[in-house]
Amino acid sequence: MSYPIIDSSKEKMDKQMEFFHEQLNTVRTGVANAAMLNGVEAEYYGSMTPLNQIASIKVEEGRTLVIKPYDPSSLKDIEKALNKADLGIAPQNDGTVIRLAVPQLTGETRKEMSKKVSKIAEDAKVQIRNIRRDAMNVVKKDKTVDEDTQKDMEDEIQKLTDKYTDQIAAIADKKSKEVMNVQ
To answer: How far apart are CA 12 and CA 15, in angstroms?
Structure first.
């Protein structure tokens, strides 16, 4: 049987998984990936604008990101935003495009990136558990349902939580292996 609180919790957990995937895409693996620049915003006509809205981002030769602004006058602002984003990559401005050469990861950098993946995963699990806690509180406070139904709802919420935390752990493990893989 489906309960509204469980459907609502599943929806929230799905959104958390999307956010988790977005966060993982920002982790460098030694290969150029346009998603590394998600979250980087540059000033464009007085307001902060996501980079992918003011420039095209392409991967060249597997290790280089090429950022070509739609408006050439925004090149300096984009370069400034890339420097401020603390990507660990120095942007190279040739006057028309900006190149980001993604360096081969050192052993130490790989360990740092692996730790970052673990932290992102743990934060996502905490958010999933917070959703579970809120749902459980709603179920406990609902005096219109009998004890058996309440127990069934709590079991369903826990199963949902376990499913999502297991998915997060598996995805994080795969990403860590990808980061630690020397190419």
So the answer is: 5
The whole-angstrom separation of Cα 65 and Cα 79 is 13
The token duo for 153 is 């709802």
**Tokens linked to 74:** 């925004």
DSSP state at residue 61: T
The pLDDT tens digits of the residues spanning 165-179 come to 999 999 999 888 887
pLDDT band at 183 (very low <50, low <70, confident <90, very high): low
Strands 92-93 and 98-101: antiparallel
Contact 178, 120 (CB under 8 A): no
Provide DSSP, 34-45.
GGGGTT-EEEET
CA atoms within 13 A on the CB side of 83: 9
Q: For 53-72, write each residue's pLDDT tens digit.
A: 888 888 887 788 888 888 88
- Per the CB < 8 A criterion, the answer to whether 168 and 21 are in contact is no
Model's pTM, two decimal places? 0.70
Q: Where are the alpha helices (DSSP H) in the chain?
A: 4-25, 51-54, 75-84, 107-141, 147-180
Which amino acid is located at 18 in the chain?
A: E
